[in-house]
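Priority: low. Protein: Transcriptional regulator, LysR family. Input follows.
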Amino acid sequence: MLNYKQLHHFWIVARAGGIVRAAERSGLAPQTLSGQIATFETALGVNLFKRQGRGLVLTETGRMVLDYAEEIFHLGNELEEALRSRATGRAVPFRVGVADVVPKTIAWLLLAPSLDLPEPMRIVCREGKFDTLLGELAIHKLDVVLADRPLPQNMDVRGYSHALGDSTIAFFATPALVATLKKGFPECLDGAPLLLPGAEASVRGPLLRWIEAAHLHPRIVGEFDDSALMRAFAEAGAGVFPSAARVGEQLCRQAGLVHLGDAGGVIETYYAISVERRLTHPAVRAISDAATAPAQRGQAEEI
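Result:
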């Protein structure tokens, strides 16, 4: 039987990066922590740390154990929070980070299943830069991050990427702007004022390559890290803008924009990034299950 007290002491030392710092943060004596770690290693039959200079570093096995410990204690914190919420009749908080390059309508479509759970959820959305949100996810200030890319392999953040679906990219513009463009698609983009997502958007590179392959020469009049700001400029007639084809009907109906055509082969994929290998938060499971359910898979792949 795993000794969770010893696992907790290991977790404290691993997160602190050493016995002395862990003792300072936890209030426990260094000798206590050192003894607990030694007993834990003996019980498991493995070495979790190795000496490096005057300090300790995790072994490969230690890193694996730390991954599990992170999940175990994060889940324990969620359990306490859920029990407190139930006891007081409050909704369970669902803390979501949305990368600013993800279209807001797409974020709504992906998150909508979390609102249909039997247990009431209170969504707390934070929008920001991808790297910033991953940092908050790593310290458990967020339950999940919605992004247009998976977790980078070279990022010093423990996390797991769960694909939620994708969408072809299409071009839209106001009727007044369309009247000034060349006839036909994609010829209408040649010489047209074009709004582009910023350098952090994963779809930017494929879009530019598609434009180059089509021998088009639009005038890039704006670049935006925030997809909502780019849409606002487009609705004001500043330029043609690319967006997920999945929300094209809504853009045309609500914003009065015109669908010019699709960038064939340019696909934007959306991900839920969590610190858990196995999803445990009910709202995160709901959005993942909705995206992968057989009955909805066709729609999910278009989102």
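Confidence is low (pLDDT under 50) at residues 294-303. The chain has two domains: 4-70, 92-303.
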